[in-house]
Amino acid sequence: MSKKYVEQQDDGAYRIAGARVSLDSVVYAFRRGAAPESIQRSFPTLTLEQIYGAITFYLAHQSEIDEYLLAGEAEFEKLRLASHEAHPEWHERLERARKEALTSHS
Prior knowledge:
The chain is 67% helix and 6% strand. By secondary structure, it is mainly alpha-helical.
């Protein structure tokens, strides 16, 4: 008997079956070296079985999922750059505030 732990949505996104948590979230934590129990603390709506199932799915489809993640990262970067171009003054203020916050904590 086979159980499905990951579902691909109509928009191409991968989600943990029966949950709203993305496969991306589990995979990135796994790649950082997080143990399944640690991942579960970050996503308490998931069971350990779902987390292990998602990791197993990733390992079985690693090249496909790695390509999917790279495409998502490229799209994020494209949107980030477009936002900077569309709102440069807002981003400058945000960067100044970030730097001020860092220097005030030093």
